[in-house]
Amino acid sequence: MLTLKRLAVYLITFIICAVLALSIGNWRKVDNYIVAYSNQVSKADSIVNKEIVFVHLDQNPPGESACETFYLKRRNTIDLLNAVAIQAEQNNGPKGVVLDIWFGRDNTEQENLIAAINNLQEKGTPVYAAYNINAAREGVDIDSVDIETLEAAHLTEVYNILANGGEAKHPGSGRYHTNFYNERDMASYENDYYFVSNAFGDSTQIESLVYKIAHDLGDSRTLLNEVKRRGSITPYASAEEMQSHSYFFAADAQLSLESFIPYDQVPESRHTIDMDKKIMVVGDPLNDIIGMGKWAIPGPYVLTWAISDLLDMNNRLKLPLESTPVIIGQMLFFSFFVALAFALFFKYIKILQTKPAIIALLSFLVSLLLLFIYYRLILTFKAVIPVGQTIVTMIVAALLCWRFAYKFLVTGIVEGAGKYDVFISYSHGPQAEWVEKNVYEPLAAYRKPSGDRLNIFFDKKSIGIGEAFTSRYMWAIVDTKCFIPVVTDEYYGKNHCRNELDLAVNRYVEKRININMLAFNYEAVPEPYRTFNYIEVGKNPDFINIITSNLRD
Questions:
Q1: How far is 104 from 164, CA to CA, in rounded Å?
Q2: If 43 and its partner were Cys, which of 154, 168, 238, 354 is the partner (CB 3.0–4.6 Å)?
Q3: What's the confidence (pLDDT) of residue 86?
Q4: Which helix (H) or strand (E) element contains residue 69?
Q5: Are 501 and 425 spatial neighbours (Cβ–Cβ below 8 Å)?
Q6: 29-63 burial by CB neighbour count: b if 16+ within 10 A, else e?
Q7: DSSP character for 222?
Q8: pLDDT in tens, 339-379
Q9: What pLDDT, in 10s, does the model give residues 262-294?
Q10: How far apart, in whole angstroms, are the C-alpha atoms of residue 204 and residue 57?
Q11: What is the pLDDT of residue 289?
């Protein structure tokens, strides 16, 4: 019978594995892959919110020196801000300008840059810029960087002006990150990072620029479903689709609308930029790339897609469930289902009872199919279930069920499939050759009334080289109708022989097997089993006929 101790061992093992699965973060990669797969979009689909217009601003202009290149880069930003300010003055300005540009410590054109930001914000158009939380990393984990180190890498005077938010309509810190984690066909990001700001352990919050824009410039309902989330995701669309919303900025003398050139630059299809009450995202998709190889994608495009997703209240996105109770509930339910499937297969498919590894695999696959059905069901609610930890605990449950099957084996309570008619148990001692010639060969030549041969388990013929010897013969006994131990003087002293006989007797008590014991003499019969009927081969030379007669019965 199943003991509480054995059950406790299995339960504790499962709990430990489940806790480890929850604590290891590597499963997030599996979940992110599922999220990316679930959010694949047709390259022909338009996914950019109509409130957004993208402007390509060259951040690597040609110059005769690095200093001149940097000066031209700053001038490009200043000219763009001034050109937008002119439109704002004519009531044709955008709702806000988002610069996917971060301002490092170099103070080149600092005064003119601040003046351009102030001028635009005074006209009611807030300006936002990226704050590079990786600026001071140098291979160090983000969590170990303090805010003072980050501030030293930025032109703080500019970020302090950005904090004004356009006539204080949208007050904030002016410091918002654009840190995305590239994941195959999507990027993920966190809403907030916290950096230690002094020796007392106080922290400074750096919000996501995406979150800040949606909060300040989007519909008030936009973030209702985002408040409890630690972050979000954005799937990649095609660059061509993004370019249909794009303009180049090349300043003219008057900084007019003509400074904004449609991406296609085809004269007959050129149109004037419409920035009125739009959110203008500015960046350099040619020189600002995240990811590598075929997964490389322009960072400003990712930012634009992410802003668009939040402005649309994530209506098109299928977001991952992040609830810990949900994850734990999944782990427990599907692990239990694995155990249930194993028990049902074990009970009702008798031919598999002695193949617990196959049953465990089938149980896992059936449960995996159920998990997939559950995933598809939840997907209809625009949510993606986390599967990494759940699959791990399902595997653990299948392994524990496989291991637990040995309890049924050693107690002999498994019904068995009746695969073998006869199991010959003997000692590989001096009489081994006699057993093969006088027991195995006559039984192998015997014909049932149907004319069929007996299916005999004889280790020399039935166990191949390299097979797990112990489990092979023990499962064979479970699948045997008649057990024939050939008891010699050294038989019960051999571990394997003793195991075979003990298991067969357990099954005999449960009325699941017959035993026809052959003994060379009375003294050879193990003392616990001398009450059994046995055939002494020296006194009954016709023992094969006696055995075959019992088989017919």
A1: 19
A2: 238
A3: 94
A4: helix 66-89
A5: yes
A6: eebbbbbbebbebeeeeebbbebbbbbbbebeeee
A7: T
A8: 899 988 887 887 777 778 899 999 999 999 999 999 999 99
A9: 876 655 555 678 899 999 999 999 899 887 777
A10: 31
A11: 87
pTM of the full structure: 0.66
Residue found under tokens 């559950």: 374
In the structure encoding, which two tokens stand for residue 529, read together? Answer: 């089993």
Q: What is the pLDDT of residue 230?
A: 73
Taking Cα atoms as reference points, which of 167, 179, 4, 11 lies closest to residue 100?
Answer: 179
Residue with token string 């107690």: 411
Q: Domain 420-552 adopts which CATH fold?
A: Rossmann fold (3.40.50)
- Cα(198)–Cα(204) distance, integer angstroms: 10
* Of the candidates 80, 63, 30, the residue with the CA atom closest to the CA atom of residue 395: 30
The residues facing 128 across adjacent strands are 98
pLDDT at 419: 85
Residue 58 CA to chain centroid, in angstroms? Answer: 39
Distances (CA, A) of 331 to 15, 75, 343: 11, 56, 18
Structure tokens at 300: 């400003």
Q: What is the pLDDT of residue 423?
A: 94
Please state the domain extents for the chain: 4-25+322-411, 52-317, 420-552
Asked whether the beta carbons of 402 and 358 are under 8 A apart, the reply is no
Residues of the chain with pLDDT under 50: 1-2, 168, 224, 227
Q: What is the pLDDT of residue 195?
A: 86
Residue type, 7: L
Phi, psi of 320 (to 5 degrees): -70, 140
- Strands 127-129 vs 192-196: parallel, antiparallel or unpaired: unpaired
Torsion on CA atoms 311, 315, 316, 320, rounded to nearest 10: 100
Report CA Rg, the chain. 38
Structure tokens at 207: 């919000």
Q: Are the CB atoms for 142 and 96 separated by under 8 Å?
A: no
pLDDT (0 to 100) of residue 346: 80
**Amino acid identity of 295?**
W
The pair of three-digit structure tokens given for residue 222, joined into one six-digit string:
């936009």
pLDDT value, residue 1: 42
Q: Which two tokens stand for residue 408?
A: 């049924």
Helix or strand or coil: residue 223?
A: coil
